[in-house]
Amino acid sequence: GAVVSQHPSRVICKSGTSVKIECRSLDFQATTMFWYRQFPKQSLMLMATSNEGSKATYEQGVEKDKFLINHASLTLSTLTVTSAHPEDSSFYICSARGPGDEKLFFGSGTQLSVL
Amino acid sequence: DAKTTQPPSMDCAEGRAANLPCNHSTISGNEYVYWYRQIHSQGPQYIIHGLKNNETNEMASLIITEDRKSSTLILPHATLRDTAVYYCIVRFFTGGGNKLTFGTGTQLKVEL
């Protein structure tokens, strides 16, 4: 199946700093990517839909100025957590619609820990 | 997207079939049933999907009832590596930004 690469897998940062997470579709072009967040022992929660060449669409309650999404090419979307705080510590996962639109493929996730 | 209901947890002996149920009584005619699983601290993995007919692939079988209000994912010979949270999701299959909305899923534990 299609491969989605997410980097880094784990990051620890100080409170107030910004962190960038990359999501790449390795063997297909993805016009749409999705960003999820998952807290311990909870399900995945959709944060935003990233569309190549246009502004991302954020779910209700997600601060667009805090979680900056850029989808500048058909194979790369980035999520930047700005001025991170301990409550932003979470598991962040990206996904991309595969060829033919039938399936979503997921990255391996990024564990963010804000001290 | 239609809401799904799954049991929170299930146990299965290794080598036996694991049958994971899902209720989606409000599913509409053009919504597909998808199954994903998430092994601890990893991204979800696609398993199988279907609309009306039963489906089978190298990983699992999907049985959808005739009225489409429920389905069952079958792992024919469960192994320890199948221990994961299994998510049943219904969604439209159309162009555009159709997204997956995850419920709470079923924690499957495969034991010796």
Features:
heterodimer, A: 115 residues, mainly beta, seven-stranded mixed beta sheet, four-stranded antiparallel beta sheet, globular, B: 112 residues, five-stranded mixed beta sheet, 0% helix
Strand line-up across the major sheet of chain B: 1-9-8-3-4
Shape of chain A: globular
Number of strands of chain A: 11
Order of helices and strands of chain B: EEEEEEEEE
Low-pLDDT segments of chain A: none
**Helicity level of chain A, as a percent range?**
under 10%
Helical fraction of chain B equals under 10%
Q: Largest beta sheet of chain A, briefly?
A: 7 strands, mixed
Q: What is the subunit arrangement here?
A: heterodimer
Unreliable spans of chain B: none
Radius of gyration over C-alpha positions of chain A, nearest whole angstrom: 13 Å
Structural class of the helices, strands and pairings of chain B? mainly beta
The DSSP helix count of chain B reads 0
Alpha-carbon distance between the two ends of chain B? 37 Å
